[in-house]
Specification:
Helix content is 26%, strand content 22%. Strands 3, 4, 5, 6, 7, 14 and 15 form a seven-stranded mixed sheet that branches. It binds nicotinamide-adenine-dinucleotide and zinc ion (2 copies).
Length: 395
């Protein structure tokens, strides 16, 4: 089968690989029909995850058709069309039982921190991912969900990660009616978080980035006010001025470890003197009001970052952060998508054949051609291949 293969930092290629096979009775093999490239893939593509082995297949956002099931699988059967959450969860551990599927204790043996994630290095369990024609899906009775009747497959695909992540970002901000919410990052995750902030009662939503076409998308997709941080002298001062000098009620970090805007952070992050650049987090802490909430979904690795702990304690900030508990949000988000309140596929700007995955990474990582979300279509999946820029936002 064809699969994306990691060669070295900044280099992936499409290659022939052996078909995955059932390795445990609760496995399924899924024939991938759509896969996406995520902002998290950019971190791994750039070599920022420690145990990323040559030859591994990336891809944690995918939909497909069940091709084969192990002997104990009962929740899905051959031929079912499924979406598969990016976290691999056992469904029965201390954490899964509480709906904390992103913190499952059983799918990344030996780690007390990260759960297993498809295509996300041996640091996250060593599972091959879905930017391929076929993928092995462990705990097939837990993760895969049959795509509801009437749901567009591209929307289903975006329910595997960015939509629950953005929604959870807003939820973790504990937004109250009338709140002002600032979202750092106008990538797919930040745009969904900004859009979802309204669902939780926000009165004002402000999105910060430095890429104008993405800020334009924030206006159209998330109905947000926008700030280009390179166009203002001091972003924290600017945000305070916009919020009666008290600061925002809620700030969301949807940027993570490759944040721009502070040369010191950026260089020390690249040199691994800290676990990536935590500039967006620092801006969130400094521009939220006293007693405000900061929600982090941008990804950072261990061991640690230079962060403004003094501001956090003296301002009395509540911080919440997590990997998305995708499965927990699927019932609610399916309702939103089927009702039309959320239409995440509006964020898709590029649809490429899987064979062009290397170009896809280059374009997405460098934000070329007005790229927001890129999806990949394997050769044997029925498809309509088109490229183009954003044009069909809801108003
Ligand atoms: N917690 C989770 O479960 C989860 C799930 C998916 C993605 N993520 C993470 O969320 C983050 C965003 O993902 P994405 O797909 O939207 O990525 P993306 O790379 O498309 O978007 C990041 C955006 O942040 C902007 N940016 C850079 N520095 C900034 C700064 N200082 N202030 C404001 N904006 C800045 C970039 O220009 C870019 O538009 C990544 O770190 C990704 O790993 C987390
Ligand atoms: Zn992701
Ligand atoms: Zn579990």
């Amino acid at each position: 089968m064809l699969a994306t293969v990691y060669k070295r930092p900044y280099k992936v290629r499409i290659e022939e690989k052996p078909m995955p096979r059932i390795e445990h009775p609760n496995d399924a093999i899924v024939k991938v029909t759509r896969a996406a490239i995520c902002g998290s893939d950019v971190h791994i593509f750039h070599g920022l995850l420690p145990d990323t082995r040559v030859g591994c297949t990336f891809g944690h956002e995918f939909t497909g058709i069940i091709e084969e099931v192990g002997a104990t699988v009962t929740n899905v059967k051959v031929g079912d069309r499924v979406l598969v959450p990016f976290n691999i969860s056992c469904g029965s551990c201390f954490f899964c039982k509480q709906g904390l599927f992103g913190n499952c204790h059983n799918t990344n043996a030996g780690s007390t921190m990260g759960t297993g994630i498809y295509g996300y290095s041996h640091t996250c369990g060593g599972y091959d991912g879905g930017q391929a024609e076929y993928v092995r899906v462990p705990f097939a009775d837990v993760g895969p969900m049959i795509i509801p009747e009437g749901m567009d497959e591209e929307n289903a695909l975006l329910l595997t990660d960015i939509t629950p992540t953005g929604y959870q970002a807003a939820e973790m901000g504990e937004i109250k009616n009338g709140d002002t919410v600032v979202v750092f990052g106008a990538g797919p995750v930040g745009l969904i978080a900004a859009r979802c902030a309204w669902l939780f009662g926000a009165h004002r939503v402000i999105v910060v980035d430095h890429i104008d076409y993405r800020l334009e998308a924030a206006k159209k997709f998330a109905f947000a006010e926008t700030v280009n941080f390179t166009q203002v002298n001091d972003i924290i001062q600017h945000l305070k001025q916009m919020t009666d000098w008290l600061g925002a009620d809620v700030c969301i970090d949807a940027v993570g470890c490759e944040a721009k805007g502070n040369k010191f952070d950026f260089i020390t992050g690249k040199l691994m003197l800290q676990a990536g650049s935590a500039t967006a987090f620092e801006w969130a802490v400094n521009s939220v009001r006293k007693n405000g909430h900061v929600s982090i979904v941008g990804v950072y690795g261990p061991p640690g970052n230079l962060t403004p702990l003094g501001s956090i304690i003296n301002k009395g900030i509540t911080i919440r952060a997590n990997q998305a508990n995708v499965k927990r949000y699927l019932p609610r988000l399916c309702e939103h998508v089927l009702a039309g309140t959320l239409n995440p596929k509006e964020l898709i700007t590029h649809r490429l054949p899987l064979e062009e995955v290397a170009e896809g990474y280059h374009m997405f990582a460098n934000k070329l051609d007005n790229c927001i979300k890129t999806i990949l279509i394997p050769p044997r999946a029925s498809s309509q291949l088109t490229t183009g820029s954003v044009g069909t936002f809801l108003h």
